[in-house]
Write a structure and sequence with these properties.
Among the domains are: about 1-25 and about 105-230, no CATH class; about 315-605, no CATH class. With about 800 residues, it is an alpha/beta fold. Strand 12 (about 680-685) and strand 13 form a beta hairpin. It contains 27 helices and 17 strands.
C-alpha cells in the first residue's frame, strides 16, 4: 500500500518541474506546464515557494516600463484602487524595491553537488570518452554498484544500500506521515529543477538514450534521499513563506496586470483603426506577382512588411512545420530529428534522394561529406583521447591560433567565404516522404490521399481565394557561431529545427499533378496550371531568403529572377531596421552570424506579447515591432470552424509555451533561464552548467532576454490572443476543448475576439465562457488625452 502512496505522491510532486529540452532541440516551453490546471497567480506562488524564485518582474523592470510609458497610469490606478491601495505608483515601486529574493546560502549545497555529479556521469550522451559502468541497468542500480567508491560520502558497504529503488524509498519514508510524502518529494525535485526537468523530458519523449539507459524521477528520489540521510542533510523542509513576501507578491501581480492591460489596449487600437481604414478602401482584385508564406514566428512580422513593400506581393502566416508532422533525416550526419511541434507525434519520415538529372554530382557530394565528417571525428578523438591530447594541442596550437584570429578579426569575410564554398545539396537532392512505420522501406511512398490532405490543410488554414504564379513556402532557421543555444533560435514549430525541410516537402507535394487533380475533383480546390510552388528559408540572423528552385520551369524563370532581386533589397532594408543602422547593415548581420564572441547574434522571439489570427488586412499597414505572432485565417471560408479549431489547438498552445518560457526566463534568469553565456560549459552534449557543475540550465540565456545585466529587452507579459471570427464559433470551440478553456480561465493567456458578424466589435474573454466588450472609443480618447498631457 505504501508503494502506491509513494508513486502517487511522486506524480503530484513532479508538477513542480517542467521539461528541460536538450541543446540540440531546445524547444521553448512553459517551465510550469504542470501547473497549468490552476490559476496563474496561485501556480507561480507555489513555484516561488518551492524553487525560491522570482515569479513576477522585479521593481527595476516595472520602473523601466513605467518610465517608458508602457504602463497606462489610469489602468494602474484603477487596479490599485480595486484593492484599496490608494498611494502613488512611485510609493509602490519603492515598496517593491525594498523587498528582494532571499540570498540565504543553500543549505543543501553538498547534497545538490553530489547528485549533480552522479547525474552528469549517468546522463552523458557521448561527450565523455569514458562511460559510467552499468548504465544499461538504470540509474539506481548503476549508482548502487559505484556509490561505495564515492569519496564525497562516508565509507559504507554495498550491503548497506537497499537493492532496489522501491525498497530505498520505502525505507526513507518510514516514520513520515503519508500526507507529508508529496511535500518531501516536491522539495527534493525542486532542488535541481534543470536535472529533474531533463529526466521528465526523457521519460515523456522516450528517446534512444532513455531506452538504453533508463532513469526516472523515482530513481532520482531514491538516490537523493538515501544520500541525504547518509550525509545528514535535511529531508523534511520548513515553510519559509512570510506575510511580507505574500503582500509584495500581490502588489507585483497588480502591476503586471496593469502592464498587460495597457499592451492590450494598444493592440485593440491597432486592430480597430486598421479595420476602419481597410473598410473604406477597395480591395485589389488583381492577382499578385508572388505569394510568400512565412512561419507565424514574431521575426516574420518584420520581414513580411519589407517583402510587401518591394512589389506586388502578398504574404501569409502559417505554423512553420507547414502541416507536415515529420521527422527529418539529415543528409550530412545521418541523424534523424523531429521537425514538427512537440505536441504532435511524427507521422512521416523525410529524407533526401538524388534528382535524376544530377546523378553524376551525387557521388562527389557524398565523398566530400564523408571526408568532412571523418575530419571532424578524427580531430575530436585527437583532442579528447588521453594519449594524444597534450601532443595534439601543442602541435596544432599555431593553426588553431590563426583560425581564432581570423574568426575574431574577419568573421563577416569568413561567413561569405563559407557560404560561397558550401555544397548546395538542395540543388542535387530532393526530399522524399514516407510513413514512420516503414523506416527500412526507403522507397515506399505515402498514399495520394495523404498528400492531398497535407496540401488541403494548408489551403484550409490560410483561406486562399486566388493563387499567384509563384507561391513560396518560406521556413526559417538561424545561424550563429559558438552558440550552445543556437537551436533555440530555429523554428519552434519544427521542434527547434530549421523549417526549410518542411517547406521544400510541401512545395514538392503541391506541385504533383495527381495531387492537384484530386484537390479539384474531390474538394473543389483548383490550382491554376500557371502556379508553381517553391520552398525556401529565411535566415533570421542575416534576413537572407534562400529559394530552393532547382526544378523551376523555364516559363517562370524571369518572374523568379525579379523576385530574387527584390528579396535582396528586402534583406537590405530589413537588416537596416532590425540592426538600427543605415549603412552596411547586411555586412554587420553576416558578421554577427559568424562571430564566435557574439553573445546576441539575434534576439529570437524576445518581445513576443501577442498572437493575431485573421486576415493580413488587420495589421498590414502597422509596424508591430516584432511583438506579434501572425497566423492567416479567413473566417468566411472556414464554414465548419475546423480550421480555426486546429489553429487554437496547435499554434495557440505552442505560442503560449514560447511566451511563458520567455516570461519566466526574464523574471528569474538564474532559476528559470540559462544564466550568462560568458560562464557556460557544455555537459553531456545536451545542456550547459554555469562554471564547473551544479544544476543544468533549463531556460534562455540572460543575453537572449536582457539588453544588459540591468536593462530590460523582453517585456515579460502573458500572451494576448486576438482572433477575427464569429464569437459563437470561438465559444463552441472552447466548449469542445477543455484544456483551451482552462488556459483562459486560469489566465495563462488572454483572448480577444473581433466578431465580423457584430460590426467587428471586440469581445474579451473573462471567466467560465463569459465575454466582455472592449470600449475602443474610450481607449482612443485615453491615448489622445495622455498625448495632450
Amino acid at each position: 500500500m505504501i508503494n502506491l502512496t509513494i508513486q502517487k505522491s511522486i506524480e503530484e510532486a513532479s508538477q513542480v518541474v517542467g521539461k528541460t529540452w536538450p541543446l540540440y532541440s531546445f524547444v521553448t516551453s512553459n517551465p510550469l506546464s504542470g501547473y497549468e490546471g490552476m490559476p496563474f497567480e496561485k501556480a507561480v506562488k507555489q513555484a516561488r515557494k518551492f524553487l525560491n524564485a522570482n515569479v513576477f518582474p522585479e521593481s527595476m523592470v516595472f520602473r523601466q516600463a513605467w518610465e517608458k510609458g508602457e504602463i497606462d497610469k489610469k489602468v494602474l490606478l484603477k487596479l490599485l484602487g480595486e484593492k484599496q491601495l490608494l498611494e502613488s505608483p512611485e510609493y509602490y515601486l519603492q515598496q517593491m524595491a525594498s523587498h528582494k529574493k532571499s540570498d540565504v546560502k543553500n543549505s543543501q549545497h553538498d547534497l545538490d553537488r553530489i547528485m549533480a555529479k552522479w547525474l552528469a556521469a549517468f546522463m552523458d550522451e557521448g561527450l565523455a570518452e569514458w562511460e559510467m559502468p552499468n548504465k544499461s541497468e538504470g540509474f539506481y542500480s548503476a549508482w548502487r554498484k559505484l556509490a561505495v567508491y564515492d569519496t564525497d560520502m562516508p565509507k559504507m558497504a554495498i550491503g548497506e544500500i537497499p537493492k532496489t529503488k522501491t525498497e530505498a524509498l520505502a525505507a526513507m519514508m518510514d516514520g513520515y506521515s503519508s500526507t507529508d510524502f508529496t511535500k518531501i518529494f516536491t522539495y527534493h525535485l525542486a532542488a535541481l529543477p534543470g536535472w529533474t526537468g531533463y529526466i521528465n523530458h526523457r521519460n515523456t519523449y522516450d528517446s534512444q538514450w532513455q531506452q538504453e539507459y533508463p532513469i526516472t524521477l523515482e530513481d532520482y528520489l531514491a538516490v537523493r534521499l538515501w544520500v541525504a540521510k547518509k550525509i545528514d542533510a535535511e529531508i523534511y523542509p520548513e515553510d519559509n513563506e512570510t506575510a511580507t513576501t505574500l503582500s509584495i507578491s500581490s502588489l507585483q501581480y497588480i502591476w503586471l496586470k496593469a502592464w498587460e492591460k495597457s499592451w492590450q489596449n494598444e493592440l485593440v487600437e491597432v486592430l480597430d483603426n486598421q479595420q476602419i481604414s481597410s473598410s473604406t478602401e477597395e480591395k485589389e482584385q488583381q492577382v499578385p506577382d508572388a505569394q510568400l508564406v512565412f512561419c507565424i514566428d514574431t521575426r516574420s512580422e518584420l520581414i513580411r512588411r519589407h517583402v510587401e513593400n518591394k512589389g506586388h506581393y502578398e504574404t501569409f502566416g502559417y505554423a512553420g512545420f507547414f502541416g507536415i508532422a515529420m521527422d527529418y533525416e539529415d543528409l550530412k550526419d545521418g541523424l534523424t530529428r523531429k521537425s514538427c511541434p512537440p505536441i504532435l507525434n511524427s507521422a512521416y519520415h523525410v529524407s533526401e534522394i538524388p534528382q535524376e538529372r544530377h546523378i553524376e554530382k551525387v557521388q562527389a557530394y557524398k565523398q566530400n561529406n564523408d571526408v568532412s565528417n571523418f575530419k571532424d571525428y578524427f580531430l575530436k578523438r585527437m583532442k579528447n583521447m588521453l594519449p594524444s591530447a597534450f601532443g595534439y594541442v601543442e602541435g596544432a596550437g599555431f593553426f588553431y591560433g590563426m583560425s581564432l584570429l581570423a574568426r575574431t578579426i574577419l568573421p563577416g569575410y569568413l561567413y561569405r567565404f563559407n557560404q560561397n564554398n558550401a555544397a548546395d545539396y538542395e540543388s542535387i537532392f530532393e526530399p522524399q516522404i514516407r510513413n514512420t512505420c516503414t523506416p527500412e522501406q526507403t522507397h515506399v511512398d505515402i498514399p495520394l490521399a495523404e498528400k492531398v490532405a497535407i496540401v488541403k490543410g494548408a489551403f484550409d488554414l490560410m483561406g486562399w481565394e486566388k493563387l499567384a504564379p509563384l507561391v513560396l513556402f518560406i521556413g526559417h532557421g538561424s545561424q550563429s557561431a559558438n552558440n550552445p543555444f543556437g537551436s533555440s533560435l530555429d523554428c519552434g514549430a519544427c521542434a527547434a529545427s530549421p523549417g526549410r525541410h518542411n517547406a521544400r516537402m510541401l512545395a514538392k507535394i503541391a506541385n504533383i499533378p495527381e495531387v492537384r487533380q484530386a484537390l479539384k475533383e474531390n474538394h473543389g480546390i483548383e490550382i491554376p496550371a500557371s502556379t508553381i510552388f517553391i520552398g525556401g528559408e529565411h535566415n533570421t540572423t542575416t534576413d537572407e531568403i534562400l529559394l530552393f528552385d532547382s526544378e523551376m520551369p523555364d516559363s517562370h524563370k524571369n518572374q523568379l529572377q525579379r523576385l530574387k532581386l527584390n528579396l535582396l533589397k528586402t534583406q537590405q532594408t530589413a537588416t537596416q531596421e532590425r540592426l538600427a543602422i543605415a549603412n552596411k547593415s547586411v555586412a554587420l548581420a553576416n558578421k554577427k552570424a559568424n562571430n564566435w564572441s557574439e553573445t546576441r547574434p539575434e534576439w529570437g522571439l524576445a518581445k513576443n506579447a501577442g498572437f493575431i489570427v485573421g486576415s493580413r488586412e488587420l495589421t498590414k499597414s502597422n509596424n508591430l515591432d516584432g511583438r506579434c505572432f501572425l497566423h492567416s485565417y479567413n473566417w468566411e471560408k472556414d464554414k465548419s470552424g475546423k480550421a480555426l479549431e486546429a489553429i487554437m489547438q496547435g499554434p495557440m498552445v505552442v505560442t503560449q509555451w514560447i511566451n511563458n518560457h520567455y516570461y519566466f526566463s526574464t523574471v528569474d534568469n538564474e532559476v528559470f533561464g540559462g544564466g550568462s553565456k560568458i560562464t557556460h560549459n557544455i555537459t553531456g552534449k545536451f545542456a550547459v552548467v554555469q562554471g564547473n557543475g551544479g544544476d543544468i540550465k533549463m531556460g534562455l540565456p540572460l543575453q537572449s532576454v536582457m539588453e544588459s545585466d540591468v536593462e530590460m529587452y523582453h517585456q515579460p507579459l502573458r500572451l494576448s490572443v486576438a482572433i477575427q471570427a464569429p464569437l459563437a464559433r470561438v465559444s463552441d470551440i472552447l466548449l469542445r476543448n477543455v484544456h483551451l478553456k482552462s488556459l483562459l480561465d486560469n489566465e495563462w493567456i488572454y483572448l480577444m475576439v473581433m466578431d465580423p458578424l457584430d460590426g467587428n466589435k471586440i469581445h474579451q474573454y473573462q471567466q467560465d465562457g463569459n465575454w466582455g466588450s472592449t470600449n475602443q472609443k474610450s481607449i482612443v480618447s485615453n491615448v489622445i488625452e495622455m498625448i495632450a498631457v
